Automatic annotation (TrEMBL):
Keywords: Membrane, Transmembrane, Transmembrane helix. This is DUF2231 domain-containing protein. It holds the Pfam family DUF2231. It comes from Massilia consociata. Residues 17-137 form the DUF2231 domain.
Length: 143
């Protein structure tokens, strides 16, 4: 007679619908800002920089609200380490770098380049990684 095999418990705690919407919304907003920065870099039309500034502001709003949800989920989690903590820290870094990017885009004219473009690339990559990790969040199992 074989003994029953019990798999290691992995508790799946995906974000709620509002949290997931806010998290997923950061990707197109920061990606749009990156594309606007690329267009500004190639055309010298200041309106592209203005458009990027507004998209970054929207991305920061979504990211900030998702950060609040992630903090609440981290506080409520039975295990305060592993993926939930890494997810929260990635969101925090994305928010801080997005804020620095917003300050960079507040400069006048061509002073935005090239730092604004580089920050937009970094924040967009962070948004993609954070959204992937946040929408596949697991706690309790191996990280």
């Amino acid at each position: 007679m074989s003994s029953p095999v019990t798999p290691s418990l992995t508790y799946r705690s995906p974000p709620g619908p509002l949290h997931a919407t806010l998290l997923a919304g950061t990707v197109p907003l920061f990606l749009g800002a990156l594309l606007s920065d690329i267009a500004y870099y190639n055309s010298y039309q200041i309106q592209w920089s203005n458009f990027a500034s507004w998209l970054i502001a929207g991305g920061l709003l979504f990211c900030g609200l998702a950060l609040v949800f992630a903090l609440v989920n981290l506080v409520r989690a039975p295990k305060k380490a592993g993926r939930p903590l890494v997810y929260f820290l990635l969101l925090l870094v994305m928010f801080v770098l997005g804020l620095v990017n917003a300050f960079e885009h507040a400069k006048d004219g061509w002073a935005v380049m090239p730092a604004g473009l580089v920050l937009s690339v970094v924040v967009t990559l962070l948004a993609c990684v954070t959204a992937w990790m946040g929408l596949n969040l697991r706690s309790g199992g191996p990280a």
